[in-house]
Amino acid sequence: MRKPETVEHLYIDCDGFFASVEQQMRPRLRERPVGVVPFGDTERTGLIAVSKEAKMLGIKGFMSIREARRICPDIQIVAQSPDLYRRAHNALTMQISSVLPIDVIKSIDELSCRLDSTAIHNPAAVAHEVKKAVSDNIGPYITLTMGAAANRHLAKIACKQAKWHDGVYGDGLAVWKPEDMPGPLLQMDIKDIPGIGPNMRQRLYHANIYSTESLYRTDPKLMRKIWGNVNGERLWYALHGYDIEAEESKQGMIGHSRVLPPENRSLQGSREVARLLAVKAARRLRRANLYASGLWVWLAQRDSNWRHMERMMAVNDDHSILLALERAWRVAAAQLPVGPIFNLGVTLLDFSQANECQEDLFNTDMDERRKWEATTRAIDELNQRYGQTVISLGEWRQPSGGYAGGKISFSRIPDAEDFW
């Protein structure tokens, strides 16, 4: 296992990305505290992103609007624009890759670059060049914080350290050279180490590991035991500067979820949103050239969650998936307690590749399935031609706030088709 002797990775994190994109696009928001919310200015929701100015006042993501207004009565509240953020992400990656090859895109606002033989000698100069390219060609209100280190994991931790500097949030840079380690790392709180969430911290506390220093001094085999798998040992080697990367995970499910606006919180209203999400998941399934054998539905009420799994033949056409959803909805109608539904999710799972699907000799409706697959392909081709949903099975109506199926998650950047 190789242990680099120089800085080899540059980790880049956009500062308050959603809010900073809003500031770049809307001059009235610039240099003002900004909070981004899912559906508009309503006291019943929370902030999904905040600007640098808001963070310096102590306002954080996931804070309620009411609490944010208590801290700053003048905070500017704006509704999210996911397609705008997707396009801003594409513009950013184009500018960054014009300076330095991108190694891995971790999320819509985080990515990692591997430094070449020239850049490793002056990572600070390369970081400045990247920042200048973004500022000059996209705009100065979208700022980047960066961390440079021997491997990607340490670079990400260095980036976190650089977020706050001299009392200012964002636009920072931390360079952790191998010869300076582990000093900078040991100054970090254990909760700031990627891969150590609340549950894992409890496991570490039970093993008498309370600090980053004690974690660093721990034996790698003990870390494997605490984690219950090889990831603990991988983390040990990453923290000690070895060039080790986690194995790429395979996609195991495709789905969408949605917080429901008030007018869709009935069983019938939530069904309309669920149908839309199921079709969008089916479209992603076909773009990945996959078939699914399971449909998972969950509905969240005030004090309870309802979950249900429907089994299917290996399918990827809209008709078959919507039939499975209808079966699930009949079960929901019989089992769900009376009351509003606040959130729902639809997920396809149990995948097989298209070229691995075999016809079932005992299935008597194969001709019907082939017909619906052909119909769905024709629908996809028409929608692709016009760049929007011009034809669908049943009514196609976005709920209030729009962007159903275009949600930006931590692990996935939506495609343009997700916004149709």
TrEMBL record:
Q: Where is the UmuC domain?
A: 9-197
The cofactors it requires, by name, are:
Mg(2+)
Q: Which InterPro entries match?
A: DNA/RNA_pol_sf, DNA_pol_Y-fam_little_finger, DNA_polymerase-Y, Rev_trsase/Diguanyl_cyclase, UmuC
Q: What enzyme category does the UniProt record give?
A: transferase
Q: What is its EC number?
A: 2.7.7.7
Catalysed reaction per UniProt? DNA(n) + a 2'-deoxyribonucleoside 5'-triphosphate = DNA(n+1) + diphosphate
Please indicate which superkingdom the organism of origin belongs to: Bacteria
| SUPFAM superfamilies xrefs | DNA/RNA polymerases
User: Which family is this protein grouped under?
Assistant: Belongs to the DNA polymerase type-Y family.
Tell me, in a sentence or two, what this protein's role is: Poorly processive, error-prone DNA polymerase involved in untargeted mutagenesis. Copies undamaged DNA at stalled replication forks, which arise in vivo from mismatched or misaligned primer ends. These misaligned primers can be extended by PolIV. Exhibits no 3'-5' exonuclease (proofreading) activity. May be involved in translesional synthesis, in conjunction with the beta clamp from PolIII.
Q: Subunit structure of this entry?
A: Monomer.
> Which protein, by its recorded name, is this?
DNA-directed DNA polymerase
Q: Which organism is it from?
A: Hohaiivirga grylli
